[in-house]
Design a protein that fits this description.
Strand content: 15-25%
CATH superfamily of the largest domain: Integrase, DNA-binding domain
Radius of gyration: 24 Å
Number of strands: 5
Number of domains: 2
Helix content: 40-55%
Oligomer: single chain
């Protein structure tokens, strides 16, 4: 089956308004910005995508919904992202990895189940300290966003030095609790 010719045009706001949904989803490529495309679904929903190659394979990076991101902004974001691709980054893979990183609460739970119960005889005490002092402050934060400043703030609120030191060391030898 022969490949369909690419639907490549110089995108304008008037052209975007005149595009109508079809029975199948289709993409309209921008002739001005390399890799930028507008995808139109049969439901009428529209999104901006940037398509680039990484190690010889095409990657698709979702920029945003067309009703939220204008044509000029989409071109600007596509150009910035393409510059990152040229520098060696893979924005689509980074976005996917960030999505799976999880919150501090999820990471603490996983640590307790997969490591602490098996390797640490006093895991209940460490688990209590994490649940009592760290989860209320960091439970909903992404694990990567916790910094040394966050650690200092939580430890600084604890009156006793010994207790503060135990909380800081509760999950022993695990870098994600120490902060950056």
């Amino acid at each position: 089956m022969p490949r369909a010719a690419p639907n490549k045009r110089k995108l304008t706001t008037l052209l975007l308004q005149r595009l109508r949904p079809q029975a199948r989803a289709f993409m309209v490529w921008d002739a001005q910005q390399h890799g930028l495309a507008l995808r139109v679904w049969p439901s009428g929903r529209r999104s901006w995508y940037l398509v680039y190659r990484r190690h010889g394979r095409p990657r698709r990076y979702h920029i945003g919904a067309a009703d939220a991101v204008g044509l000029a902004d989409a071109r600007k974001l596509a150009a910035e992202t393409m510059l990152d691709v040229i520098r060696g980054r893979d924005p689509a893979a980074e976005k996917r990895a960030a999505r799976g990183a999880g919150t501090f609460a999820e990471l603490a739970e996983r640590y307790r189940e997969e490591y602490a119960r098996k390797k640490n005889k006093s895991w209940q005490q460490a688990d209590y300290l994490v649940r009592r002092y760290l989860l209320p402050a960091w439970g909903k934060l992404s694990a990567e966003s916790i910094t040394r400043g966050n650690v200092r703030a939580v430890i600084g609120k604890i009156a006793g030095r010994i207790l503060a030191n135990r909380i800081r060391c509760a999950p022993q030898r695990r870098p994600f609790f120490r902060g950056r």
